[in-house]
Amino acid sequence: MVEPDQPSTARMIDFWLGGTHHYPVDVAAAHAFEQAYGPCAPVFRALRAFLGRAVRAIAATGVDSFLVFGAGVPTLGNVHEVAPEATVLYTDVDPVTIRLGQRLLAGSDRAGYGYGDATDIGTIDPALLHRFVPGWGRRPVGVVFLGLAAFLDDETLARTLDELYRASAVGSHLAIDFDTEELAGHPEALAMMGPAFRMRSPAAFAPLLGRWTPTSEGIVAVSRWRPDGAPEEVPAAFHGVVAVRSAG
Ligand SMILES: C[S@@+](CC[C@H](N)C(=O)[O-])C[C@H]1O[C@@H](n2cnc3c(N)ncnc32)[C@H](O)[C@@H]1O
Fold first, then answer.
1. How many angstroms does the Cα of residue 74 sit away from the middle of ligand 1?
2. Residue span of the structural domain in which 190 resides
3. What Gene3D superfamilies does the entry give (predicted)?
4. Is residue 221 in a domain?
């Protein structure tokens, strides 16, 4: 694979999680960000642990297929590893990440990786959708939308979540997180994220869920969503929620 000359947030997360699927350009960007913010590994470990708890909770409702948006690198406790009985379609818009994901999942008959713009589900290859998310629109599925909301403005995010609501069957679940205003306390780190980066308070995020109904845990710091034991003490950089598609 040709070495990329631009860092990717997905590969920076792989670096912070102790993975092996990143390049020097990603490590340099990760170190620069940490200079401005402080240690990131504990925050991203807490985020990946939230993914695990949320996906297992969704699978426990009987859901056996997942559609993942902005998927990044499909390793290190990602969806198909925590729900091994399920089928999983990972999607992303970054061609380098998609190629990497396809290489990593080449031997799997339960998990695949393809192009998908979260803001337009029509961009997903129907054959892949049919194969890995069988009965999409007719059977309940898990929709995983992590590490993505910060890159979408309010109007786009609300429209996207509403489209997913309309397209998915009753009983489907959405796992979603967002960046809180905690990052505003680190102005140099915030500047590195660029002007289009969006932080939100829980009160500002809640209406964007539209008709998706949060489970009883509500919208909380990710380490506090159904923690296994005492929640990890990490900065509340991300909040998350699992929400259900009810009838109507
Ligand atoms: C911060 S990374 C998160 C990766 C992974 N979900 C995780 O939590 O570790 C964001 C990912 O979203 C992808 N992305 C950005 N805009 C997107 C869009 N409109 N649709 C789908 N993916 C997008 C990026 O290419 C990147 O891989």
1. 12
2. 9-244
3. Vaccinia Virus protein VP39
4. yes
157: CATH = 3.40.50.150
The number of folded domains in the chain is 1
pTM over 0.85: yes
Q: Is 1 part of any domain?
A: no
Give residue 71 CA to ligand 1 midpoint distance, Å: 6
Is 55 a member of any domain? yes
CA of 92 to the centre of ligand 1 (A): 6
Ligand 1 neighbours (beta carbon < 6 A): 9-10, 13, 69-72, 92-94, 97, 117-119, 146-148, 151
Measure 8 CA to ligand 1 centroid, in angstroms. Answer: 9
In a domain, 82, yes or no: yes
SS (H, E, C) the chain: CCCCCCCCHHHHHHHHCCCCCCCHHHHHHHHHHHHHHCCCHHHHHHHHHHHHHHHHHHHHCCCCEEEEECCCCCCCCCHHHHCCCCEEEEEECCHHHHHHHHHHCCCCCCEEEEECECCEHHHCCHHHHHHHCCCECCECCEEEECCCHHHCCHHHHHHHHHHHHHHCCCCCEEEEEEECHHHHHCHHHHHHCCCCCCCCCHHHHHHHHCCCEECCCCCEEHHHCCCCCCCCCCCCCEEEEEEECCCC
